[in-house]
């Protein structure tokens, strides 16, 4: 390894990472290259504690169902219930079983004890109510939204009307619809009518925000708007599942990241007066350049949530990508970027992308990982990141 490459790196600490970030951030994206590897959420927890204690951050968002996350947030901010209940009901994708996530929720609850409400840490989900195998039924969110509005506005729909349009929940959650649009109910006449109703409910929420916040609270209105926004995205996603075009998977991937981007924009607006937000998700959801994946022999491409919010926030958004070297027998080649960075002396390093580009005497070869779920560093996109965090071995 040449000296300039060593000079581009520092041992990982919260201070060494934030030193590379632009001032005035509202949203810091910390990506992980693959899920369910303890090293990355552990590093996230360490960084978040530093950001809270030294940089004024007051919230974090994870790649989980934004509606389920309301349960975990209620616990974090001092609500009733137990940690076990928060982990079981406040996470999607079975990520409540991850030890680092449990540590995060427990630490946030402890930190918030005795603090005024406006200074307490908040916990968010950035994803929609979407699992790998299916999308959720709109019923829970639509029922809650109707129940919020009904005592204060003269709505033209009853819960019975909505139930009739919704039909059976198992029709919405049918896993066969993921690969076969014929099994989706996303474009039935009932689903199309529900999309119009949700659009009208969102308009009512906005038009009556002074009345509704006075009658309830700003927090309750925000949660109602979250449900309305989520319903609109969820119904669009179900319609995408029902699409017959060969590009339907591209559409579904793009719609999911659009939901994520809408949620992140809303979080930034809500947290504007309190402090910046850390968001932790897969690199493919936070990167600035175009995302891609191969499924069923076909390559899909779409713009990620990070690419979208970066256009909205400009230099108030920063993206930190993470990667690793060895993972058992999966060792990167010496001519790959991961192979080059594996020669760094520290177990965890923070790399300045600009200095790394200057230090490289030739373009590294792309890594072909043994694990298809791992997104290798793209040597051509180094300039699209504000910092790289590299773990030598996991």
UniProtKB/TrEMBL annotation:
Record has Methyltransferase as a keyword: no
SUPFAM superfamilies: EreA/ChaN-like
Alphabetized Pfam families for the sequence: Erythro_esteras (PF05139)
Alphabetized UniProt keyword annotations: Hydrolase
Record-level Gene Ontology MF annotations: hydrolase activity
Domain of life according to the entry: Bacteria
EC annotation from Swiss-Prot or TrEMBL: 3.1.1.-
InterPro entries, alphabetized: Emycin_Estase (IPR007815), Hydrolase/PRTase-associated (IPR052036), UCP036794_erythomycin (IPR014622)
Cross-referenced PANTHER family: ESTERASE, PUTATIVE (AFU_ORTHOLOGUE AFUA_1G05850)-RELATED
Name of this chain's protein: Erythromycin esterase family protein
Taxonomic lineage of the native organism: Bacteria, Bacillati, Actinomycetota, Actinomycetes, Streptosporangiales
């Amino acid at each position: 390894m040449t000296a300039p490459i060593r000079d581009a790196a520092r041992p990982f600490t919260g201070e060494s990472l934030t030193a590379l970030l632009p001032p005035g951030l509202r949203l810091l994206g910390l990506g992980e290259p693959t899920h369910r590897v303890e090293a990355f959420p552990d590093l996230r927890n360490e960084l978040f504690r530093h950001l809270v204690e030294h940089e004024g951050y007051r919230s974090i968002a994870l790649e989980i169902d934004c509606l389920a996350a309301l349960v975990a947030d209620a616990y974090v901010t001092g609500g009733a219930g137990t940690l076990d209940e928060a982990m079981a009901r406040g996470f999607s994708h079975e990520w409540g079983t991850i030890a680092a996530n449990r540590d995060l929720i427990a630490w946030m609850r402890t930190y918030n004890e005795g603090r005024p409400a406006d200074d307490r840490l908040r916990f968010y989900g950035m994803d929609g109510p979407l699992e790998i195998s299916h999308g959720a039924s709109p019923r829970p969110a639509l029922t809650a939204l109707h129940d919020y509005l009904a005592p204060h506005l003269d709505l033209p729909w009853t819960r019975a009307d909505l139930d009739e349009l919704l039909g059976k929940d198992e029709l919405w959650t049918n896993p066969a619809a993921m690969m076969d649009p014929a099994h989706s109910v996303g474009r039935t006449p009932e689903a199309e009518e529900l999309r119009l109703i949700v659009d009208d409910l969102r308009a009512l929420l906005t038009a009556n925000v002074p009345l509704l916040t006075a009658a309830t609270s700003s927090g309750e209105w925000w949660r109602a708007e979250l449900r309305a926004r989520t319903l609109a995205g969820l119904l669009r996603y179900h319609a995408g599942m029902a699409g017959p075009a060969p590009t339907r998977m591209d559409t579904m991937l793009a719609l999911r990241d659009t939901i994520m981007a809408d949620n992140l924009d809303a979080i930034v607006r809500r947290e504007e007066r309190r402090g910046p937000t850390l968001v932790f998700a897969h690199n493919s959801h936070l990167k600035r350049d175009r995302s891609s994946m191969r499924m069923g022999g076909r390559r899909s491409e779409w713009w990620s949530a990070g690419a979208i919010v970066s256009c909205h926030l400009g230099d108030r958004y920063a993206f930190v990508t993470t990667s690793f070297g060895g993972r058992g027998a999966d060792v990167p080649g010496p001519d790959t970027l991961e192979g080059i960075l594996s020669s760094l002396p520290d177990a965890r390093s923070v790399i300045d992308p600009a200095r790394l580009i200057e230090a490289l005497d030739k373009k590294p070869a792309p890594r072909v990982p043994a694990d298809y779920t791992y997104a290798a560093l793209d040597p051509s996109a180094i300039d699209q990141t504000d910092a790289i965090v590299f773990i030598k071995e996991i």
